[in-house]
Amino acid sequence: MQKKQQKKEPKSKKKSVGLALGGGGARGLAHIGVIKVLRQAGIDIDYIAGTSMGALVGGFYAATQDVDLLEKLFSDIKEKDMLPLRKMLRAHNKAESPFRDSKPVIEILKSHIKNVSIEKCAIPFAAIATDVKNGDMVILRKGSLTDAIQASAALPMIFAPVSLDGKLLSDGGMVDPVPADVVRDMGAEFVIAIDVSSRWPDITQETISIHGIKSIIADALPVLEHQLIHRIIEKANVVIRPPVMNYHWIDFPEARELIKMGIDETEIHLKEICKGTGYSEPKKTPVQKFVDFLFDDTL
Known about the structure:
Elements: E1 17-21, H1 30-40, E2 47-51, H2 53-64, H3 67-75, H4 83-90, H5 106-113, E3 125-131, E4 137-140, H6 145-152, E5 162-164, E6 167-171, H7 180-185, E7 190-194, H8 210-218, H9 220-232, E8 238-240, H10 255-277, H11 286-294
Parallel strand pairs: 1-2, 1-7, 2-3, 7-8
Antiparallel strand pairs: 3-4, 3-6, 5-6
Helix pairs in contact: 1-3, 1-10, 2-5, 2-6
């Protein structure tokens, strides 16, 4: 008698994954932690779009696929490496602190990606910049990778705009702080957005004093970003917000802590990401299972 063949269950199709990496200076080092967790979970990153620091981290990873090197390069940054930038920020006379005298963080990475074009990146990549002449968003998807990163990260009044393809380009955070819309348009079916720069401050806690007014003014840019990002990240399936807002944008010597925050926050969302993308959730260690048991609200 012929043995009846069992019907095979169709394999679940994995969705293509896109990362939208926001700007935020040193706070963007949390992006490295996000990438590390996704890699360790076996989740492929199929598309990356980045703004400012997100362009730097995302561009380097798109070209090299070496997150360990990226982590090492930033973890080795010391306070003395940031002194030229700090000196420039403290200078009273702007004419005495030109861009050419500073050493932007991109210099640390240039030796590894200096000859790479965006078209040759292992992962499709786009950097977001702003056309300073008209305020239009510029999406950089071809040409020199380092030029694109430098344009995307050219923070106004700190770094000089970059001349590229007949345009004068500056920081992309002014037009698209977390480019979830761009990475979706690139072809990503499942978009993970990482926001490390926006927040809505609780001004009810601020007293009406000079200190309170200064604090509210200092929060103005994150508030504007919050409003802009709120509309953009509707294109995202998951939004990850590592708790990095207490760090300054030039706190690169705190890289290890910032990367760890990205790791911890991504692990919280990992189950949701796996479910949404069709990837299997990584097997947990006995310790992780015990911790889950202790904090299981259903028991």
